[in-house]
Amino acid sequence: MPIEGIDYGKCISCHKCYQICPMDVFRLIEGEVYIAYREDCARCFLCERVCPTQAIKVNALPVLPVPNPFEEARLNEK
To answer: Residue 6 forms beta bridges with which residues?
Structure first.
C-alpha cells in the first residue's frame, strides 16, 4: 500500500498535501483532507515532505517486486 495514512492527531489541516499531490490522491471534505484514491499514489513522497507536522506516512516499499534481470539470466543458465 503506497500511502499508509494520515495521523489526524498531528494534522493541522493546512491542505498542503492536497495541493501538492500530482496524482490527485486526496479529497478535501468539509475542510479536512482524506485519502480518497490510495491505489493512485505514485510514491513521490511530496505529501510526506511538505507536511509541516509529519502527519502523513508513505510506504517506501514497492507494491510489486522489482525484477532482477541478473537473477533471470542465472536461472536460465541451469
So the answer is: 56
